[in-house]
Structures are given as C-alpha cells and as structure tokens.
Design goal:
With 299 residues, the chain is of the alpha/beta class. The chain contains nine helices and twelve strands. An eight-stranded parallel beta sheet has the order 1-10-7-6-5-4-3-2. Strands 8-9 form a two-stranded antiparallel sheet. Strand 11 and strand 12 form a beta hairpin. The longest helix has 21 residues.
Length: 299
C-alpha cells in the first residue's frame, strides 16, 4: 500500500456506531461507546428504517453531555436514516418526505450536540443518475442555509442498484449544484469505495489524489472504517470485520493512522459476531477491533 503511516500529537479519534434505546437513550449511547473504549461514536436519532422519533426531551441529552465531558469525548456524528431518498423522481411523496425529514434530522443532530449529519445521497430508482442528482441538489438547496450550524456529509457509496455517489465525480456534481456547498462534507466509507472500484489497498495515496482534484481532501469529515466481503469493484456493499475481508488490516490501519486525517473521526460499522459463550447470540466486535486498530502493527 502506497501511503504514509505516522503517529501524531493528536489522539486517534475512533469509535463505532452505537444504539440509542430503552430508558437511557442518548445517555446510554455514550455509555456504550465508553464500554468499547472509544473516544468518538456515531448514532442515529431513532430507528434508521422509519420516521418514528422520541421527543428531544426524552433523550437525556444533558446527562449524555455531562458523561462525554467527564470522559473526554469531544465529538460524535449522527447518521440520517436510510429511508431518506432525495434522488427519488418517481414518487413525489417519497421525495417530499425525504426533504422534510432531512430538515428535522438536522435540527435533532444540532440539538443533540453534533455538527455532522451523514447522508446517503440517494437512489434514482431507474430515472438515471442525472435526474437523480438534480433532485438531490434540489432537496439539499431546500435544507441547507448559510447559518445552519451543521454539515451534511455525503457518504461515498458502493454502487449497488441505482445508488448515486459511487464515484467522486458523482459527489462533485452534487457539490456543483448546491448553493450553500460550504455546508457539505464527505463521509469516506472504506468498504463502499473499495466496492465501487477504487484501489485503496495498493494505491490509497493515488485514490486520495483523485478525490482531492475533484472535491478537496479537506472535505472528508468522517471515515467509516469497514473491511469488505467483496472484491474491488463488486458494487455490493457487504461489510466484513477488520482484517477479515479483501481490504485487510494493514490498509485499514494505515488509513486510520494517516497523518492527513489525524483529527477526523473514524467509525466502525463492522458486523456483529457470534458470542464465544453462546454462539446463538451475536455480540459487537468494537472493543476488540478498536484496540486492534489502535496498537502498532506487528513487524
């Protein structure tokens, strides 16, 4: 892999996605992140598959913030639900729901204390990438304002189905159409980029050069760190556990420790694994994978 690995004066910001449910809600999310020895994390404001949301007053935000401060967690990110599809030109009601709910999700992210909302750009559902991109731009122009204290981070996509955002050019086309494009950022997903065809294993620096020419590497505000079950270019988006996929531990370790992205949160979204005590039960791998990525690679 042609990239530079270096330690920096900055502590590595690494965590995973965590839940938010039960009586503890957001306070419980912070506790879960700390149980993995994480110093950042990603959360959904509710179930990612629907629009049901609890009142902000029920999320125990002040207690969560107090625990974050006490534990040294300075930053977390929010992920918008999968049901938001700004690229839908086929069903007017689906598009309208997407715009309205995205606006609500930005408000909730801000109220919870995050300034980054990660968004899957959308799927054109057969209308074609240009038509879908036009709708994404239209929707973002409704939601984004110059004084909005939140960035929307467009996620790099794997290219399955009619997803938009499978290439840096497709993301750049969205940027080009958005009036308040200074409020856009990018979430760089290692599995998705690999599955979209970019060779991050053998030429991460070259991939970054392509990204920089089209968007600027300073636009990356968060990494999703996932191995992939697929060969490069498969367009399938199937995450694998760290070191158990086609990307591999050395590449992911180098990306996590890359000096150009020292201050950027790295978030794991790897699959749960069968419990050693009870194989019928799945458990999160995050504590072990975070520890694996933190320590130096064996020579």
């Amino acid at each position: 892999m042609t990239t530079t690995t270096a330690t920096t004066m900055h502590p590595l910001k690494i965590g995973s996605h965590v839940g938010m449910n039960g009586k503890e809600m957001f306070y419980g999310s912070v506790k879960e992140a700390l149980s993995y020895q994480a110093n950042t994390f990603m959360v959904y404001t509710g179930a990612p598959q629907n629009t049901r949301r609890k009142e902000l007053s029920q999320l125990r935000i002040p207690e969560a913030h107090a625990l974050m401060k006490e534990s040294g967690i300075e930053q977390f990110v929010v992920h918008a639900p999968y049901i938001i599809n700004l690229a839908n030109t086929v069903k007017t009601e689906t598009y309208r729901l997407a715009v309205d709910f995205l606006a609500l999700e930005t408000e909730r992210a801000i109220a919870m204390g995050s300034h980054i909302l990660i968004l899957h750009p959308g799927s054109h559902v057969g209308a074609g990438t240009p038509a879908g991109t036009k709708k994404i731009v239209e929707g973002l122009n409704e939601v984004l304002t110059r004084d909005l204290p939140c960035f929307i981070a467009l996620e790099t996509m794997a290219g399955k189905g009619s997803e938009i955002g499978r290439s840096f050019e497709e993301l750049a086309a969205i940027y080009d159409g958005v009036v308040c494009s200074e409020k856009l950022r990018v979430c760089f997903d290692t599995c998705h980029v690999n599955d979209a065809g970019y060779d991050i294993v053998n030429d991460f620096d070259g991939v970054m050069e392509q990204f920089h020419r089209l968007l600027g590497r300073e636009q990356i505000c968060v990494f999703h760190i996932n191995d992939s079950k697929n060969e490069r270019g498969a367009s399938k988006d199937r995450h694998a556990n760290i070191g158990q996929g086609t990307i591999g531990l050395p590449t992911l370790h180098a990306i996590v420790h890359h000096p150009d992205f020292a201050d950027i949160p790295k978030i794991l979204e790897t699959p749960y694994l069968p419990s050693l005590q009870d194989p019928s039960r799945s458990v999160p791998p995050y504590k072990e994978e975070i520890a694996l990525l933190r320590k130096p690679l064996p020579l």
